[in-house]
Design a protein that fits this description.
Number of strands: 5
Largest sheet: 3 strands, parallel
Structural class: alpha/beta
Strand order of the largest sheet: 2-1-3
Helix content: 25-40%
Length: 153
């Protein structure tokens, strides 16, 4: 599946043909530039698909409050998801679906050169912390992800 806009991903990072989500609607990754923090959700929402960017609709208001509390501007952060494609109705992406997107995710995050990754949700956390426990047991802790070398919270 080609990436027509946003971040140019090398073909070896795209395993879309192997993914069960490969024919689903996609939010293309944004162009990257150095940022302080990368926020990683699980998968795009319906609002994200309509707007063409992550953390849209209801979550946009929450995200704006988070940025305000952290005294960050939108240019200081990058938003993405563990998988690029809309998952099945209300279901979180499977481990196999995340695995198809993991090289792309790591490439995208590294291109941003962040000081910190904020995993928003259980599946996003497991993309960086494969042996992690339930999100309720790791929430609020800082982890060093050896595969990517960037702290994850």
């Amino acid at each position: 599946m080609p990436y027509a806009t946003g971040l140019q991903i090398r073909p070896e990072f795209a395993y879309c043909d192997d993914c069960t989500l490969n024919s689903r609607p996609m939010v293309h990754p944004a162009k990257t530039h150095p940022v302080r923090i990368v926020f990683v959700g699980e998968a795009p929402t319906d609002d994200d698909l309509k707007k063409g960017k992550y953390f849209s609709g209801f979550t946009q208001k929450l995200f704006e409050r988070i940025l305000d509390e952290l005294k960050l501007t939108p240019d200081e952060v990058h938003k993405t998801a563990a998988v690029l494609c809309k998952n099945r109705a209300g279901k979180a992406p499977s481990a196999a679906e995340i695995n198809c997107c993991i090289d792309r995710l790591y490439h995208e995050v590294k291109a941003c050169q962040p000081k910190l990754i904020v995993a928003m949700g259980d599946k996003a956390a497991k993309a960086f912390l494969p042996k992690s426990k339930a999100i309720s047991q790791i929430r609020g802790y800082l982890f060093e992800q050896t595969n990517i070398g960037i702290p994850v919270v």
